[in-house]
Amino acid sequence: MITWLCVFCFLLAAALLLVILKILLMRRALREICRELQEKLEEDTNTLLRVSSRDSSIRSLAAQLNTQLRLLRDRRHKYQQGDRELKEAITNMAHDLRTPLTAVCGYLELLKQDCLPSRYFDLLENRTELLKTLTEELFRYSVLLAEEDWEPETVLLNSVLQECLASHYSDFKKEGIIPEIHLTENPVSRSLNRSFLCRILDNIISNAIKYSDGDFQVFLDESGEMRFSNLARDLTPVAAGRLFDRFYTVKTGAREASGLGLSIAKTLTERMGGTIRAEYRQERLSIFLSFSARM
């Protein structure tokens, strides 16, 4: 009886020692995790948590923390990128608004002195309209970002595209552009917001007219993909890759733009589940727009 009691006490003591050892090892592993986690949060590093413990629970905890670190790092980079873009955008918009505003102020000062030649009234009106356009585009962009809900309806891409092209007839004529239109005769319908789609197409067409070197082509195939193409010798592949960035403008001559048109088009396209991309080859810019047949 005494022998069995001694054996039981020995086993109990051994088990207790193992439990204590396990607790001590886990505490050390947790201290390692806390120390490394603090270091990773304070530093902008791509390294992840490393633990010496082989305990499955501890390693699982470290793996979950590493997952959250990756997400946190991605969000930090997106925030930093957005912050840089916002600062750049504010600088660009301030410059774009200041230039016509300075001219307007100068013309108004001459007007007060009754020494403003009549030909300058057209310039004054032009600069005022430019200010109005820039501020209106900025306002519309902020409104679009705030709107999340949209009402879908069945729209015929062929019809909407033809209407948008017709609405720009005077713009094409002013720039001396004769558009080449190639639309499939088969009706292509999608479940979209008609207003959003018209805004997307208007922005793409307006951008093409503004920066085209004399031509414009538009295609719609049976799959529903739309392609808008124009010659753009002043463009580069790098600039083409940034066309959908907020407030990004291509600096060519005296052309004025807010840099929001294609950004708005991308925002609305993605909101309706579509895709939009730009491609630049052999001095031609092509913008591809498509929407899934199933919504």
Which shape, going by the Cα principal axes? elongated
Tell me the name of the CATH homologous superfamily of the largest domain.
Histidine kinase-like ATPase, C-terminal domain
Q: What is the β-strand count?
A: 7
Structural class: alpha+beta
Helicity, as a percent range? 55-70%
CATH architecture label of the largest domain: 2-Layer Sandwich
Placed side by side, the strands forming the largest sheet appear as 2-4-5-7-6
Largest sheet: 5 strands, mixed
SSE series:
HHHEHHEEHEEHHEE
Low-confidence stretches: none
User: How far from one another are the termini?
Assistant: 79 Å
What Rg is obtained from the alpha carbons, in whole angstroms? 31 Å
The domain tally reads 2
CATH T-level topology of the largest domain? Heat Shock Protein 90
Mean pLDDT: 77
User: How many distinct helices?
Assistant: 8
CATH class of the largest domain: Alpha Beta
Beta content: 5-15%
Membrane topology: Multi-pass membrane protein
EC number: 2.7.13.3
Domain Histidine kinase: 92-295
GO molecular function: phosphorelay sensor kinase activity
Protein traits:
295 residues; alpha+beta; Helix Hairpins; Heat Shock Protein 90; 2 domains; 5-stranded mixed β-sheet; two-stranded antiparallel ribbon; 8 helices; 12% strand
Map the helices and strands.
Elements lengths: L1 H41 L13 H57 L7 H27 L6 E4 H11 L1 H7 L4 E4 L5 E4 L1 H18 L5 E4 L5 E6 L5 H5 L19 H11 L3 E7 L2 E7 L5
Parallel strand pairs: 2-4
Antiparallel strand pairs: 1-3, 4-5, 5-7, 6-7
Helix pairs in contact: 1-2, 2-3, 3-8, 4-6, 6-8
Question: Could you explain how this protein is built, in words?
Answer:
- The protein has 295 residues and is α+β, with helices and mostly antiparallel strands.
- The chain folds into 2 domains: 76-146, Helix Hairpins (Orthogonal Bundle); 153-290, 2-Layer Sandwich (Heat Shock Protein 90).
- It is built from 8 helices and 7 strands.
- The N and C termini lie far apart (79 Å).
- The model has no long low-confidence stretch (mean pLDDT 77).
- Residues 27-54 form a coiled coil.
- InterPro entries: HATPase_C_sf, HATPase_dom, His_kinase_dom, HisK_dim/P_dom, HisK_dim/P_sf, HssS/ArlS-like, Sig_transdc_His_kin-like_C.
- This is histidine kinase.
- GO terms for molecular function: phosphorelay sensor kinase activity.
